[in-house]
TrEMBL record:
<dbReference type="InterPro" id="IPR058163">
    <property type="entry name" value="LysR-type_TF_proteobact-type"/>
</dbReference>
<feature type="domain" description="HTH lysR-type">
    <location>
        <begin position="2"/>
        <end position="59"/>
    </location>
</feature>
<dbReference type="Pfam" id="PF00126">
    <property type="entry name" value="HTH_1"/>
</dbReference>
<dbReference type="InterPro" id="IPR036390">
    <property type="entry name" value="WH_DNA-bd_sf"/>
</dbReference>
<keyword id="KW-0804">Transcription</keyword>
<dbReference type="GO" id="GO:0006351">
    <property type="term" value="P:DNA-templated transcription"/>
</dbReference>
<dbReference type="Pfam" id="PF03466">
    <property type="entry name" value="LysR_substrate"/>
</dbReference>
<keyword id="KW-0805">Transcription regulation</keyword>
<dbReference type="InterPro" id="IPR036388">
    <property type="entry name" value="WH-like_DNA-bd_sf"/>
</dbReference>
<dbReference type="InterPro" id="IPR005119">
    <property type="entry name" value="LysR_subst-bd"/>
</dbReference>
<keyword id="KW-0238">DNA-binding</keyword>
<protein>
    <submittedName>
        <fullName>DNA-binding transcriptional LysR family regulator</fullName>
    </submittedName>
</protein>
<comment type="similarity">
    <text>Belongs to the LysR transcriptional regulatory family.</text>
</comment>
<dbReference type="GO" id="GO:0043565">
    <property type="term" value="F:sequence-specific DNA binding"/>
</dbReference>
<dbReference type="GO" id="GO:0003700">
    <property type="term" value="F:DNA-binding transcription factor activity"/>
</dbReference>
<dbReference type="InterPro" id="IPR000847">
    <property type="entry name" value="LysR_HTH_N"/>
</dbReference>
Length: 300
C-alpha cells in the first residue's frame, strides 16, 4: 500500500518534468522528492517515469495515472475545505513546549500552518531546555527529544520520528586539520563533550568512548554552547543532525553509529488532549513533523 501523499509528489514531478522543479513547488528538498517517487514506484510495482539527464518523462502507466491523481487531489482539497470550515469553530489557547532547535525547525512552521485554518486558537510557545511538567500543567503539549516519552502514566502521545546524531567539525577546522571520516581517523583530534549528568543522553558522551586517545578540550551542559564551540573551530563534537545539517558553518564527519540517541515524541496530558482544539493541533503537528522528517537526518 502506498502513502496517499505520494500522489501529490507524483503530480508535481509530472507537471514540472524534473525533481528539482517539483521540490520547489512542494517546498521540500530534491532528495526527498527522488526518494518519495522511488518508494511510490516500489509500492505500486510499476515504473511511472523514465529517467534521463534532462528530467523525468512519464511512462505509459504514468500517463494513465495523471488524471486519476488529479481527481484524488480535487477530492482531498474538498475534504480539506470541509474540515477547515468546521475547524474555524475551534477556539482556545494551547501552551506548547519544546527545546529551541526543535521549536525553530519543526514547531514554528507547523504552528503557522495550523493557525491559517484555526485563527481563533492562540498558541503560547514555551522554549525550555528542561522538560516542563505536563502532568502538573506547566504546558499542554510537548514536542521533545527523549527515549521514552510515556514514563509518566498521566501522559499520552507517541514517537513521531528518529532524531539521529553525528559528529561535526567547522569548515575552518576541516581546512586546517582535515575532516576525520571515522572514529579511528578522529584519534588525536580535540573533542568537545557535555557535562556528565543523570539526564544526559548517552550519545553526548559517545565520542569520548569511541575515540579514547582524543584530547577533551571543552565541556558544556548546553547543546547550543557545544554547537557554537564547534563552529568556532575548537574541535569535534556529537550533535543532533537537526542542528548540524542546518548550520552552514558545520561539516559532518561521521555518524554516531552504535550510540543510543533520543527520538522525537509528541506528548500531552490525558486531560488536555480531550479538548477539541488541542486534539486538532496534535494531529496537525504530528503530520507536519512526519512529513519533514528529512530535516532530522544528515545523509551527506
Amino acid at each position: 500500500m502506498f502513502d496517499w501523499d505520494d500522489l501529490r509528489v507524483f503530480r508535481a514531478v509530472a507537471e514540472a518534468g524534473t525533481t528539482l522543479g517539483a521540490a520547489r513547488r512542494l517546498g521540500i528538498s530534491q532528495p526527498t522528492v527522488v526518494r518519495r517517487i522511488a518508494g511510490f514506484e516500489r509500492a505500486v510495482g510499476v515504473a511511472l517515469f523514465e529517467r534521463s539527464r534532462t528530467g523525468y518523462r512519464l511512462t505509459e502507466a504514468g500517463e494513465e495515472l495523471v488524471p486519476l491523481a488529479e481527481q484524488v487531489g480535487k477530492e482531498v482539497e474538498a475534504i480539506n475545505d470541509m474540515l477547515a470550515s468546521r475547524s474555524r469553530s475551534l477556539a482556545g489557547t494551547i501552551r506548547v513546549t519544546a527545546a529551541e532547535p526543535v521549536a525553530n525547525m519543526l514547531l514554528a512552521p507547523a504552528v503557522l500552518d495550523f493557525q491559517r485554518t484555526n485563527p481563533n486558537v492562540a498558541i503560547q510557545l514555551l522554549i525550555a531546555d528542561r522538560f516542563l511538567d505536563l502532568a502538573r500543567g506547566e504546558a499542554d503539549v510537548a514536542l521533545r527529544a527523549t527515549f521514552n516519552g510515556l514514563e509518566d502514566s498521566n501522559l499520552v502521545g507517541r514517537k513521531l520520528v528518529d532524531a539521529p546524531w553525528a559528529v561535526y567539525c567547522s569548515r575552518e577546522y576541516m581546512e586546517n586539520r582535515g575532516r576525520p571520516c571515522t572514529p579511528l581517523e578522529a584519534d588525536g583530534h580535540p573533542i568537545l563533550s557535555s557535562e556528565r549528568s543523570a539526564g544526559d543522553a548517552p550519545v553526548m558522551h559517545w565520542l569520548e568512548e569511541a575515540v579514547p586517545n582524543a584530547k577533551l578540550v571543552w565541556r558544556s551542559n548546553s547543546l547550543s554552547s557545544l554547537q557554537s564551540a564547534v563552529r568556532a573551530g575548537l574541535g569535534l563534537a556529537p550533535l543532533p543532525c537537526l542542528l548540524g545539517r542546518n548550520d552552514p558553518e558545520l561539516v559532518k564527519c561521521f555518524d554516531a553509529g552504535g550510540a543510543a540517541f533520543p527520538d522525537i515524541w509528541l506528548l500531552a496530558h490525558a486531560a488536555a488532549r480531550s479538548r477539541p482544539h488541542i486534539q486538532s493541533f496534535i494531529a496537525a503537528l504530528s503530520d507536519h513533523v512526519i512529513a519533514h522528517a528529512d530535516l532530522l537526518r544528515d545523509e551527506s
